[in-house]
Design brief:
heterodimer, A: alpha/beta, Rossmann fold, eight-stranded mixed β-sheet, 16 strands, B: alpha/beta, 10 helices
Amino acid sequence: MRPAVLTGEYFMTGDVACAEGALAAGCRFFGGYPITPATEVAEHIAGRLPEVGGTFIQMEDEIAAMASIIGASCAGVKSMTSTSGPGFSLMMENIGLAVCTETPCVVVNVQRAGPSTGLPTQGAQGDMMQARWGSHGHYEIIALAPSSPQEIFYLTVEAFNLSETYRSPVLVMTDEMIGHLSERVVIPEAKKIKTVSRPRPKGSKARFKPFEPGPSGVAPMASAGEGYHIHVTGLTHDQRGYPVMTVETQEAMMAQIMGKIQRNLDDIIRIEEYRLEDAEFVIVSYGVSARTSLAAVDEARELGIKAGLLRLITVWPFPEARIRSLAKRVRGLVTVEINLGQIHLEVERCAAGQAPSLLVGHPGGTIIPPGRVVEALQEFSRGGV
Amino acid sequence: MNQPRKQETHPLDGLLRVDRIPHIWCPGCGIGTAFSASLIAMRESGIDLEKTVMVSGIGCSGRGAGYVNLDSYHTTHGRAIPFATGMKLAKPELNVVVFSGDGDLFAIGGNHFIHAARRNVDLTVVCVNNFNYGMTGGQVAATTPINARTTTTPAGNPDGPFNLPLLAYASGATYVARWTILHTRELMESIQEALLNRGFSFVEILSPCPINYGRRNKESGIASLKIYQDKTIIRNDARPWELEIDFDRGIVLGKFIETERPTCTDRYDSTCRPKELLEGEKTLE
């Protein structure tokens, strides 16, 4: 029997590192459904969960997988599922349930090229806007984008921590390239991995209101079977959790769901900057595309173009403030992503005309080679775009 | 003359969220009776109510979870069973009761029903079958009789309904019964048995929907009850494939299946858990 935290050095794929990150974070329930290229996350954790006291179940579809992890989380157990585009589409309604009922859970999307069945075995980054807006209604969501198997390990831990802190579903938006890439992964000792659990109720059970924010702005969460007699609904509800079909209740509930994320952007948003100090052209990228962009920065510098990289580790909520401040002082922004312009639109919105914005995109199935990014930077620096 | 004693409380007050009354159910609707029978059964069965959870989907019966003063979850349309499955497997000590309607459990949620029954997840599923979608104003359901009129079958329903006990039996349920809201005593006993049965237990409750179904099919609320009285036969040994609802030939009620087989959790533990982990748990006890 192996421990939950497999301390050591490994050569492992992103999908396996993701599963190990979940276990290290305290995930003890996984409801899954097979789909390329995310299957290996489920396969790996299916073998691991029973030996650490957890439970794996392969549900009948992704709708059920998503519903099951919300049920498990409401029972007090940290839970996760993993999928790719078609399954992500099926999970959308219940992701909204998790948002509305403020239920922590983690959804991993190992992205492949779409639309529809698309290119099942070939990667893309085409679900970034779906991650933001895919469930109906308006809401805030947290989405992280790892760039390596090592990072997917850490960001899966982070995803659980953010999910528990803010009582919100958190999306790990990786891609087939990272999911299937084998690299060195170091898993630290268990005591060096910080894990966070949801705020818990204190005091009178009779007076407890399941959606009344605590000092952190997030409501403490009671689990099923603890004697709090809570009611939880996807209908618009008040702090007691009771459905109340009024405009005022909708406004108050939305302010709570949106506010707990919007008030904590500094805690949630993680970015990484490379050679940005004197950069005239800034590449904005994430996931596998940030790796090719990193090479492009160095190549462009050798050609005399002052390029730098802003790597988005948190994609949602969007790091607006940093893009705005950069747009004020640089000559151009280049977004590199394997879709035909999704995060690019956000960059353009935040640049607000202060700096020109360019997309280096691709419809999916392959990475964007550094050469294409360098060519775009050259064009841009000559003023040709 | 004796004045009737003024009753300030309801016998189920402790189990009801009285601050949410009045409920949304229409006059003549049978869900209240089905709901009361479920609550009484929960109380009488002796199960630990602090460890008992009600999960509902969407629809008129799906509002059940909102009125029970226990941990209760009102989920998405059709997804009460997979939600309940996650909850039960994550915390097996919970008693998880799914209370929902025929449209929720057997049309949009049909796939989840058959798979939870196949796995023998230890859930109690109570289905109020009112033969149509009441919440949205009376549309055709997977349980609507042939030729019945609904708002989406204005010329009559061309399709046939599910035989729900047969579906439950064929999928692997270990307790299967059917009653009507008129048979309250049998119904309460049946739900108690279902709660105490280890495994996937299913109770179908036939229930009138006079406002949306009855009105379009010349069947008042009282007429539905009359049918439940005159046209039903109790046959506990009936074979599941003989349970089609036929209002002319008669409707068979009863407890049709009560059997034992290992639950989803039993099998997961014996098949997937390392032996030393299970033995460790035993010594701890």
